[in-house]
Amino acid sequence: MSTYRIGEVVKKVNLSADTLRYYEKIGLLPPVARNTAGVRIYDDQDLSRLGFIRRAQAMNFSLAEIGQLLEMRASPQNARNEVRELTHQKLLEVEKNLGELGTLRNELQLLINLCQGTQDGCPILEGIGKKVQP
Amino acid sequence: MAAVAIEVFLSNFCENCANARVLVEKEIARLGNARFDVCYIDVLEQIDHAVALGVLATPAIAINGKLVFTGLPTSAALQTVLAEYVAAGDE
Protein backbone atom coordinates (compact mmCIF):
# COMPACT_ATOMS: atom_id res chain seq x y z
CA MET A 1 0.00 0.00 0.00
CA SER A 2 1.34 3.43 -0.94
CA THR A 3 1.71 6.22 1.56
CA TYR A 4 1.50 9.95 1.04
CA ARG A 5 2.40 13.10 2.89
CA ILE A 6 -0.22 15.76 3.27
CA GLY A 7 1.19 17.87 0.42
CA GLU A 8 0.81 14.96 -1.97
CA VAL A 9 -2.73 14.31 -0.81
CA VAL A 10 -3.61 17.98 -1.30
CA LYS A 11 -2.58 17.67 -4.94
CA LYS A 12 -4.26 14.33 -5.50
CA VAL A 13 -7.66 15.18 -4.06
CA ASN A 14 -7.61 18.94 -4.62
CA LEU A 15 -8.49 19.77 -1.04
CA SER A 16 -6.51 22.09 1.21
CA ALA A 17 -4.31 20.82 4.03
CA ASP A 18 -6.56 22.63 6.49
CA THR A 19 -9.58 20.82 5.08
CA LEU A 20 -7.83 17.47 5.40
CA ARG A 21 -6.96 18.18 9.02
CA TYR A 22 -10.53 19.36 9.65
CA TYR A 23 -12.01 16.18 8.21
CA GLU A 24 -9.79 14.20 10.52
CA LYS A 25 -10.80 16.36 13.48
CA ILE A 26 -14.53 15.85 12.89
CA GLY A 27 -14.10 12.14 12.24
CA LEU A 28 -14.75 11.94 8.50
CA LEU A 29 -11.25 10.51 8.30
CA PRO A 30 -10.05 8.09 10.96
CA PRO A 31 -6.97 9.25 12.89
CA VAL A 32 -4.25 9.47 10.26
CA ALA A 33 -1.07 7.53 10.89
CA ARG A 34 2.03 9.52 11.85
CA ASN A 35 5.68 8.81 11.27
CA THR A 36 8.22 9.05 14.05
CA ALA A 37 8.54 12.78 13.46
CA GLY A 38 4.79 13.21 13.97
CA VAL A 39 4.11 13.94 10.30
CA ARG A 40 0.77 12.68 8.96
CA ILE A 41 1.14 9.74 6.59
CA TYR A 42 -1.96 9.00 4.52
CA ASP A 43 -2.59 5.70 2.77
CA ASP A 44 -4.70 4.54 -0.17
CA GLN A 45 -7.68 3.92 2.09
CA ASP A 46 -7.57 7.55 3.19
CA LEU A 47 -7.43 8.68 -0.42
CA SER A 48 -10.35 6.48 -1.32
CA ARG A 49 -12.34 7.92 1.58
CA LEU A 50 -11.45 11.47 0.56
CA GLY A 51 -12.52 10.75 -3.00
CA PHE A 52 -15.88 9.58 -1.72
CA ILE A 53 -16.23 12.71 0.41
CA ARG A 54 -15.49 14.94 -2.58
CA ARG A 55 -18.00 13.17 -4.78
CA ALA A 56 -20.65 13.34 -2.10
CA GLN A 57 -19.96 17.04 -1.57
CA ALA A 58 -20.34 17.60 -5.30
CA MET A 59 -23.85 16.22 -4.81
CA ASN A 60 -24.39 18.78 -2.02
CA PHE A 61 -24.60 16.16 0.70
CA SER A 62 -23.93 17.65 4.11
CA LEU A 63 -20.84 16.64 6.08
CA ALA A 64 -23.12 14.99 8.64
CA GLU A 65 -24.75 12.93 5.90
CA ILE A 66 -21.37 12.08 4.43
CA GLY A 67 -20.23 10.87 7.83
CA GLN A 68 -23.18 8.49 7.96
CA LEU A 69 -22.59 7.29 4.42
CA LEU A 70 -18.95 6.61 5.29
CA GLU A 71 -20.20 4.47 8.16
CA MET A 72 -22.23 2.48 5.64
CA ARG A 73 -19.27 2.35 3.29
CA ALA A 74 -16.99 0.92 5.97
CA SER A 75 -19.38 -1.81 7.03
CA PRO A 76 -22.56 -2.16 4.95
CA GLN A 77 -23.74 -5.27 6.76
CA ASN A 78 -23.65 -3.63 10.15
CA ALA A 79 -25.10 -0.26 9.19
CA ARG A 80 -27.93 1.06 11.33
CA ASN A 81 -31.39 1.21 9.77
CA GLU A 82 -31.24 4.99 9.79
CA VAL A 83 -28.02 4.92 7.77
CA ARG A 84 -29.39 2.36 5.35
CA GLU A 85 -32.41 4.56 4.80
CA LEU A 86 -30.21 7.61 4.22
CA THR A 87 -28.10 5.66 1.74
CA HIS A 88 -31.20 4.61 -0.14
CA GLN A 89 -32.46 8.19 -0.21
CA LYS A 90 -29.10 9.47 -1.47
CA LEU A 91 -29.04 6.80 -4.16
CA LEU A 92 -32.36 8.13 -5.44
CA GLU A 93 -30.95 11.65 -5.45
CA VAL A 94 -27.90 10.53 -7.43
CA GLU A 95 -30.08 8.69 -9.95
CA LYS A 96 -32.27 11.76 -10.39
CA ASN A 97 -29.17 13.86 -10.94
CA LEU A 98 -27.81 11.38 -13.46
CA GLY A 99 -31.03 11.66 -15.44
CA GLU A 100 -30.86 15.42 -15.45
CA LEU A 101 -27.18 15.39 -16.32
CA GLY A 102 -27.86 13.03 -19.20
CA THR A 103 -30.51 15.37 -20.55
CA LEU A 104 -28.17 18.35 -20.20
CA ARG A 105 -25.37 16.42 -21.93
CA ASN A 106 -27.65 15.55 -24.84
CA GLU A 107 -28.89 19.11 -25.14
CA LEU A 108 -25.34 20.44 -25.24
CA GLN A 109 -24.37 17.75 -27.75
CA LEU A 110 -27.26 18.77 -29.97
CA LEU A 111 -26.21 22.41 -29.81
CA ILE A 112 -22.61 21.51 -30.61
CA ASN A 113 -23.75 19.42 -33.56
CA LEU A 114 -25.91 22.27 -34.83
CA CYS A 115 -22.91 24.55 -34.47
CA GLN A 116 -20.84 22.29 -36.67
CA GLY A 117 -23.44 22.52 -39.38
CA THR A 118 -23.11 26.22 -39.96
CA GLN A 119 -20.47 28.61 -41.12
CA ASP A 120 -22.52 31.68 -40.22
CA GLY A 121 -22.17 31.76 -36.48
CA CYS A 122 -23.27 29.41 -33.79
CA PRO A 123 -26.83 28.72 -32.70
CA ILE A 124 -25.78 27.78 -29.16
CA LEU A 125 -26.46 31.24 -27.77
CA GLU A 126 -29.79 31.39 -29.53
CA GLY A 127 -30.70 27.97 -28.15
CA ILE A 128 -29.76 28.92 -24.61
CA GLY A 129 -31.67 32.20 -24.94
CA LYS A 130 -34.80 30.35 -25.92
CA LYS A 131 -34.40 27.97 -23.01
CA VAL A 132 -34.40 30.68 -20.39
CA GLN A 133 -37.52 32.38 -21.64
CA PRO A 134 -40.59 31.57 -19.52
CA MET B 1 -56.80 3.68 -39.60
CA ALA B 2 -54.79 5.99 -37.37
CA ALA B 3 -52.60 8.51 -39.12
CA VAL B 4 -48.86 7.92 -38.74
CA ALA B 5 -47.36 10.84 -36.82
CA ILE B 6 -44.14 12.11 -38.35
CA GLU B 7 -42.01 14.74 -36.70
CA VAL B 8 -39.20 16.13 -38.81
CA PHE B 9 -36.64 18.06 -36.76
CA LEU B 10 -34.90 20.73 -38.78
CA SER B 11 -32.64 23.69 -38.20
CA ASN B 12 -31.49 26.63 -40.20
CA PHE B 13 -27.96 25.44 -39.78
CA CYS B 14 -27.82 22.14 -41.61
CA GLU B 15 -27.36 21.63 -45.28
CA ASN B 16 -29.48 18.48 -45.45
CA CYS B 17 -32.53 19.82 -43.65
CA ALA B 18 -34.12 21.24 -46.78
CA ASN B 19 -33.46 17.94 -48.53
CA ALA B 20 -35.05 16.05 -45.64
CA ARG B 21 -38.21 18.11 -45.92
CA VAL B 22 -38.43 17.52 -49.65
CA LEU B 23 -37.80 13.81 -49.18
CA VAL B 24 -40.49 13.42 -46.53
CA GLU B 25 -43.00 15.36 -48.62
CA LYS B 26 -42.23 13.17 -51.61
CA GLU B 27 -42.51 9.86 -49.75
CA ILE B 28 -45.72 10.64 -47.91
CA ALA B 29 -47.27 11.84 -51.15
CA ARG B 30 -46.34 8.51 -52.68
CA LEU B 31 -48.07 6.57 -49.86
CA GLY B 32 -50.97 8.94 -49.46
CA ASN B 33 -50.87 12.21 -47.58
CA ALA B 34 -54.03 11.38 -45.65
CA ARG B 35 -52.25 8.53 -43.92
CA PHE B 36 -49.78 10.88 -42.24
CA ASP B 37 -49.81 13.66 -39.74
CA VAL B 38 -46.58 15.50 -40.47
CA CYS B 39 -45.01 18.21 -38.38
CA TYR B 40 -41.89 20.12 -39.32
CA ILE B 41 -40.17 21.37 -36.21
CA ASP B 42 -37.39 23.91 -35.73
CA VAL B 43 -35.28 22.01 -33.24
CA LEU B 44 -34.42 25.15 -31.31
CA GLU B 45 -38.10 25.96 -30.91
CA GLN B 46 -38.79 22.61 -29.23
CA ILE B 47 -35.42 21.63 -27.90
CA ASP B 48 -36.77 19.92 -24.77
CA HIS B 49 -39.03 17.71 -26.83
CA ALA B 50 -36.25 16.99 -29.31
CA VAL B 51 -33.77 16.01 -26.62
CA ALA B 52 -36.39 13.86 -24.89
CA LEU B 53 -36.75 11.92 -28.14
CA GLY B 54 -32.97 11.56 -28.41
CA VAL B 55 -32.41 14.03 -31.23
CA LEU B 56 -28.72 14.93 -31.19
CA ALA B 57 -28.39 16.31 -34.71
CA THR B 58 -30.50 17.53 -37.59
CA PRO B 59 -32.21 16.50 -39.72
CA ALA B 60 -33.93 13.88 -37.59
CA ILE B 61 -37.18 12.06 -38.11
CA ALA B 62 -39.38 10.62 -35.39
CA ILE B 63 -42.32 8.42 -36.20
CA ASN B 64 -45.13 7.83 -33.73
CA GLY B 65 -43.04 9.36 -30.98
CA LYS B 66 -39.90 7.35 -31.62
CA LEU B 67 -36.69 8.64 -33.17
CA VAL B 68 -36.13 6.62 -36.32
CA PHE B 69 -33.64 8.54 -38.45
CA THR B 70 -30.81 10.88 -37.57
CA GLY B 71 -29.34 12.43 -40.66
CA LEU B 72 -30.81 12.31 -44.12
CA PRO B 73 -32.19 8.83 -44.85
CA THR B 74 -32.13 7.40 -48.32
CA SER B 75 -35.37 7.56 -50.21
CA ALA B 76 -35.63 3.77 -50.11
CA ALA B 77 -35.02 3.56 -46.37
CA LEU B 78 -37.64 6.16 -45.59
CA GLN B 79 -40.11 4.58 -47.96
CA THR B 80 -39.64 1.16 -46.38
CA VAL B 81 -40.09 2.43 -42.84
CA LEU B 82 -43.13 4.53 -43.68
CA ALA B 83 -44.74 1.62 -45.48
CA GLU B 84 -44.20 -0.55 -42.42
CA TYR B 85 -45.91 1.99 -40.18
CA VAL B 86 -48.80 2.36 -42.59
CA ALA B 87 -49.21 -1.41 -42.77
CA ALA B 88 -49.11 -1.68 -38.98
CA GLY B 89 -51.78 0.99 -38.75
CA ASP B 90 -53.99 -0.87 -41.19
CA GLU B 91 -53.88 -4.09 -39.16
Features:
heterodimer, A: 134 residues, mainly alpha, three-stranded antiparallel beta sheet, B: 91 residues, alpha+beta, four-stranded mixed beta sheet, 3 helices, 4 strands, 25% strand
User: Helix and strand string of chain B, N-terminal first?
Assistant: EHEHEEH
Bulk shape of chain B: globular
Mean pLDDT of chain A: 88
What is the string of SSEs of chain A from the N terminus onward?
EHHEEHHHH
Strand order of the largest sheet of chain A: 1-3-2
Proportion of beta-strand residues of chain B: 25-35%
Sheet with most strands of chain B = 4 strands, mixed
Q: What is the alpha-carbon Rg of chain A in Å?
A: 21 Å
Largest protein interface, residues of each chain: A-B, 16 and 17 residues
Query: How does the helix and strand content of chain A classify structurally?
Result: mainly alpha
Q: Alpha-carbon distance between the termini of chain B?
A: 8 Å
The helix fraction of chain A, in percent, is 55-70%
- Uncertain spans of chain B: none
Number of helices of chain B: 3
Percent of sequence in beta strands of chain A: 5-15%
Q: In short, what is this structure?
A:
The complex is a heterodimer of chains A (134) and B (91). By secondary structure, chain A is mainly α. Chain A contains six helices and three strands, in the order βααββαααα.
Give an overview in words.
The complex is a heterodimer of chains A (134) and B (91). Chain A is mainly α. Chain A is 66% helix and 7% strand. Chain A has helices at 6-13, 17-25, 44-58, 63-74, 81-116, 124-132; strands at 3-5, 33-34, 40-43. In chain A, strands 1-3-2 form a three-stranded antiparallel sheet. In chain A, helix 4 (63-74) packs across helix 5. The mean pLDDT of chain A is 88. The model of chain B has no long low-confidence stretch (mean pLDDT 93). Chain B is built from three helices and four strands, in the order E-H-E-H-E-E-H. Chain A binds chain B through residues 103, 106-107, 109-110, 113-115, 117-118, 120, 123, 126-127, 130-131, and chain B through 11-15, 43-45, 47, 50-52, 54-58.
